[in-house]
Design brief:
The chain has a domain at 33-100. It contains two helices and seven strands; from the N terminus they run E-E-E-E-H-E-E-E-H. It has helices at 45-51, 88-100, and strands at residues 6-10, 14-19, 23-29, 33-40, 58-60, 68-74, 80-83.
Length: 101
């Protein structure tokens, strides 16, 4: 799927993946998000390995060909979600400030 089919949203209590911008298909409570890690490149295995990510505990939900990816580190398995929001640095800052509150 491409960026038109699904996108990522931050609500006051959840991180959501929505299809066609209104139908939530995945919801993660913000208190279950441990950290937000911006990384460069889809196959940046050195950065993912340094954080403790492996192919068996990282789910890639990227829908854009972007250079910057965001790794959401969560409390449950799979430990990491790799996403590609439209504006990665702004999204990481928004999500980081939401989980710190």
């Amino acid at each position: 799927m491409f960026g038109l089919a699904w996108d990522y949203f931050v609500t006051p209590e959840h991180f959501e993946i929505r299809v066609f911008c209104f139908l939530p298909v995945y919801r993660l409570k913000l208190n279950n998000v441990v950290a937000v890690h911006p990384i460069d490149g889809m196959f940046n295995l050195a950065a993912i390995g340094k954080l403790g990510g492996h192919p068996w505990n990282t789910v890639s939900l990227g829908n854009r060909w972007k250079r910057r990816w965001i790794l959401l580190e969560k409390r449950s398995w799979p430990r990491f979600l790799a996403i590609t929001p439209k504006h990665p640095s702004d999204f990481a800052q928004l999500l980081g400030s939401s989980i710190s509150n």
